[in-house]
């Protein structure tokens, strides 16, 4: 079903408010910008902002559901004969090579991380999102592998993969914050990723292979 005019306008308005809010937050600092300032800059009322976003943090994390479902989606869409680990490795390296935003390795991610690090509420939201993403991955692995009730293997696999991805991106962001460019970081990050996924391969490489 095609998107109606009303739905399209609402989606565009929501995106415009979020884009303006993100720009203000990155420029001035999250805690230094009020919702009223966001509304004024976007030329809407405060009530309109809250019609689209439940909290101030939601203005920044408008793609939270997409972020939390990222790993699960990759596993669900893995290729025939491909394991969960292989699919996630392939997707991560593709994002690295194309500088796609889905894992946080893209232009501007250093400024975003710097802003988040200075706000306790944003730090808390990021932790919640990471935990939700890992739990979602564990649920998907449970379903895709047909794990028995009480089998913690999907939980262990999800935790290992999530830890590797977290450490890789933490390393990349630390280097970005130190002033290194993406082009300088990328070759080393790919080498570290190959090594990390290689270590996982010996333990969970054959888990949840699509038949």
Automatic annotation (TrEMBL):
Signal peptide: none
Keyword Transcription: yes
UniProt keyword Transcription regulation present: yes
InterPro entries linked to this entry: Homeodomain-like_sf, HTH-type_TetR-like_transc_reg, HTH_TetR, MftR_C
Source species: Streptosporangium vulgare
The protein, known as: TetR/AcrR family transcriptional regulator
DNA-binding span(s): 34-53
Matching Pfam families: TetR_C_14, TetR_N
Keywords: DNA-binding, Transcription, Transcription regulation
HTH tetR-type domain boundaries: 11-71
């Amino acid at each position: 079903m095609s998107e109606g005019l009303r739905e399209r306008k609402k989606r565009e308005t929501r995106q415009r408010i979020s884009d303006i809010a993100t720009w203000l937050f990155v420029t001035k600092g999250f805690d230094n910008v009020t919702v009223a300032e966001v509304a004024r800059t976007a030329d809407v009322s405060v009530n309109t902002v809250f019609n689209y976003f439940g909290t101030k943090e939601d203005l920044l994390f408008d793609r939270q559901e997409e972020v939390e479902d990222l790993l699960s989606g990759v596993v669900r869409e893995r290729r025939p004969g491909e394991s969960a680990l292989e699919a996630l490795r392939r997707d991560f390296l593709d994002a690295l090579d194309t500088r796609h935003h889905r894992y946080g390795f893209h232009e501007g991610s250093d400024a975003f991380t710097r802003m988040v690090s200075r706000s306790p509420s944003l730090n808390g939201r990021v932790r919640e999102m990471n935990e939700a993403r890992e739990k979602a991955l564990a649920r998907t692995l449970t379903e895709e592998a047909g794990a028995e009730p009480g089998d913690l293997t999907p939980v262990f696999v999800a935790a290992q993969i999530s830890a590797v991805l977290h450490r890789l991106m933490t390393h990349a962001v630390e280097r970005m914050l130190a002033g290194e460019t993406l082009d300088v970081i990328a070759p080393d990050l790919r080498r570290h990723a190959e090594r990390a996924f290689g270590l996982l391969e010996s333990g969970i490489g054959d888990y949840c292979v699509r038949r």
